[in-house]
Design a protein that fits this description.
There is one protein chain. With about 270 residues, this protein is of the alpha/beta class. It has one domain: Aldolase class I (TIM Barrel, Alpha-Beta Barrel), CATH 3.20.20. It is about 35% helix and about 15% strand. The termini are close together.
């Protein structure tokens, strides 16, 4: 793809970046919290090491285990615990992103700044929508003002019509226009997904979002069967569920699955 955009230093422009997910175990304060922060950190570090071993160019650390999620914010203990885990992963020396569910984007920025992560993934960055946590307002204004106040260089990867959400309020706005509006609000990169975790992303949607002129990452449903086609269109593929044992996001990362995905992505980008 001649107009591919590089998201990470050292990753050739010709190559679609491969971003693996570190799904944290339940953190303090969440319903599933098990009381052992050392175990949470060990699991996160091990998953990250396996992702790097298998060929990931970057990782995103996410509090996936905290389901059901709070709406638009997380508690101080979540921020503290996530910062510890992200710092552990950053020490591996690869680019690291942060996502705190659901749409706790200010807190994610704080974690990224404190722990040395390079980017955050932000849902509800531009355009309000209804997620399974409830109504989420757009946050671009306060988020970017906070980033400026912190003098941070953390990039914002913004979702456009994110999975697990209803977007009826913007149904009359074409996807390409939503993407351009998100760029207008200041997003550094755009993320496009299917309708839910593990559900494939439509390549036509990827192409529509690309028209906004920012790097585009596919954020759900990537597997070796569709990776080559998606890699030929996107600048990055974010992969979570497939990389885990038996394709279950609750399980540990399987290095063989990571290697298989790396090979499939490289096949799509030459």
């Amino acid at each position: 793809m001649s107009d591919r955009k590089s998201l990470f230093p050292g990753v050739p422009v010709r190559r679609c970046a491969f971003v693996g997910m570190v799904h944290l175990r339940p953190l303090p304060g969440s319903p599933g919290w098990g009381g052992d922060m050392h175990a949470v950190r060990r699991a996160a570090r091990l998953d990250a090491e396996r992702l790097v071993e298998g060929g990931c160019d970057a990782v995103i650390v996410e509090n996936m285990g905290d389901v059901p999620y709070l709406r638009g914010a997380v508690a101080p203990e979540t921020v503290a615990a996530a910062s510890m885990c992200v710092s552990d992963v950053v020490s591996l020396g690869i680019p690291v992103g942060v996502q705190l569910l659901a749409a706790a984007n200010l807190e994610a920025l704080g974690v990224a700044v404190a722990a040395g992560a390079q980017f955050i993934r932000a849902e509800a960055f531009a355009y309000a929508h209804v997620a399974d946590e409830g109504w989420l307002d757009a946050c671009a204004g306060p988020l970017l003002r906070r980033r400026t106040a912190l003098r941070a260089t953390v990039a914002v990867w913004a979702d456009v019509q994110k999975k697990h959400a209803a977007h009826a309020v913007t149904a009359d706005v074409p996807l390409a226009d939503l993407a351009r509006g998100t760029v207008f609000c200041g997003a550094d990169a755009l993320v496009v997904t299917g309708t839910e975790t593990g559900r494939p992303t439509d390549r036509v949607h990827v192409e529509a979002v690309r028209s906004a002129g920012r790097p585009v990452a596919v954020g759900s449903g990537v597997n070796p069967g569709n990776a080559a086609a998606l890699a030929a269109t996107a600048d990055a593929l974010i992969v979570g569920s497939f990389l885990k044992a038996e394709g279950d996001w609750r399980r540990a990362v399987d290095v063989d699955r990571v290697r298989a995905m790396r090979a499939a992505i490289d096949h799509g980008t030459g």
